[in-house]
């Protein structure tokens, strides 16, 4: 488990990026996670690509800056009135972009335009002043942004499913993980978190099902999970596919599938709590030095 800021051999996160992330974390109050609607990552209609897939396919350099910026905007603007006029160079610093006052700021402007075209933000451009950025719902429909937990609690049974959401831990920012991620890595971080990987169980998909759910290519999946494994943010295990129902399978090559499990700073708080509860239960159930199991207190 990561205990602090990390660097990798491909991308060193500058100190001023980590300082910006910590400052934003302090400004966000008690919030330890960033809520993001499932609809940003997946669409129940396989013929319609969700916004995440669209940003990867249409954004420059794989859409990484636009995706990271949108996550940062949700982090900053999740409280009413859901807008901000923070300068582009400050966003560039948060994202750890090179030359944040010039080249980095221009990349932020380009990313904002991509987000506007995707109906994820509304931009109010002001001559001689910073642009006001207003959040739009993660579904890409252009609907006004409402905190998903609020919208879910106020919604009807028919609308609540559209406001289901997952949470990204702030440590991914404050420890410098997201800043150094490729578009494939941050996409797979969201996919694995969206899959409700909060109870400690591994996640897997068939090669046919994965693109149907997320509209992402096998290349994005393989490159993203490999990068996350290298950063110790997921654990990947191999599992034999049970073919006991097919007698002829014993003479054919055994099939395996990859199981993915969030690890380290990528684990949502709910997952950490469940893992700690399970570890405590195992300790309580283990025999003590005398060979006797601990007695549970009477209720």
Tell me about this structure.
This protein has 299 residues and is α+β, with helices and mostly antiparallel strands. It has one domain. The protein is built from eleven helices and seven strands. The longest helix has 17 residues. The protein is globular, with a radius of gyration of 21 Å. The two termini are 36 Å apart.
Quick summary:
By secondary structure, this protein is an alpha+beta fold. It is 39% helix and 11% strand.
The unreliable regions are none
Report the oligomer: single chain
Instruction: Note the main sheet.
Output: 3 strands, antiparallel
- The shape is globular
What is the rounded distance between the termini? Answer: 36 Å
Structural class by SSE content: alpha+beta
Would you spell out the secondary-structure blueprint of this structure?
Layout: H1 15-27, E1 33-37, H2 51-58, H3 64-77, E2 83-84, H4 88-94, H5 103-117, E3 121-124, E4 132-135, H6 148-154, E5 165-169, H7 171-174, H8 183-194, H9 209-214, H10 218-230, E6 234-240, E7 256-262, H11 269-285
Antiparallel strand pairs: 1-5, 2-4, 3-4, 6-7
Descriptors for this entry?
about 300 residues; about 40% helix; alpha+beta; three-stranded antiparallel sheet
């Amino acid at each position: 488990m990561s205990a602090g800021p990390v660097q990798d051999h491909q991308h060193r996160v500058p100190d001023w990026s980590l300082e910006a992330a910590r400052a934003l974390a302090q400004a966000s109050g008690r919030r330890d996670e960033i809520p993001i609607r499932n609809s940003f990552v997946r669409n129940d209609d396989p013929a319609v690509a969700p916004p995440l897939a669209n940003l990867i396919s249409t954004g420059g350099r794989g859409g990484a800056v636009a995706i990271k910026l949108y996550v940062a905007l949700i982090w900053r603007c999740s409280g009413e009135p859901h807008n901000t006029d923070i300068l582009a160079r400050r966003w560039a610093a948060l994202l750890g972009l090179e030359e944040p006052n010039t080249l980095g700021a221009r990349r932020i402007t380009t990313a904002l335009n991509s987000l506007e075209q995707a109906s994820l933000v509304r931009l109010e451009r002001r001559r001689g002043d910073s642009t006001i950025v207003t959040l739009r719902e993660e579904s890409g429909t252009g609907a006004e942004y409402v905190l998903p937990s609020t919208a879910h609690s106020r919604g009807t049974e028919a609308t609540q499913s559209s406001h289901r959401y997952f949470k990204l831990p702030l440590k991914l920012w404050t420890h410098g993980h997201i800043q150094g991620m490729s578009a494939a890595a941050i996409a797979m971080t969201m996919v694995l978190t969206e899959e409700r990987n909060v109870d400690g169980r591994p996640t897997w998909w068939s090669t046919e099902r994965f693109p149907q759910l997320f509209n992402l290519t096998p290349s994005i999946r393989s490159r993203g999970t490999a990068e996350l494994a290298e950063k110790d943010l997921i654990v990947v295990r191999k599992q034999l596919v049970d073919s006991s129902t097919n007698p002829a399978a014993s003479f054919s090559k055994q099939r395996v599938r990859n199981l993915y499990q969030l690890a380290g700073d990528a684990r949502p708080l709910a997952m950490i709590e469940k893992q700690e509860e399970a570890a405590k239960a195992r300790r309580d159930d283990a025999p003590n030095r005398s060979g006797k199991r601990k007695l549970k207190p009477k209720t």
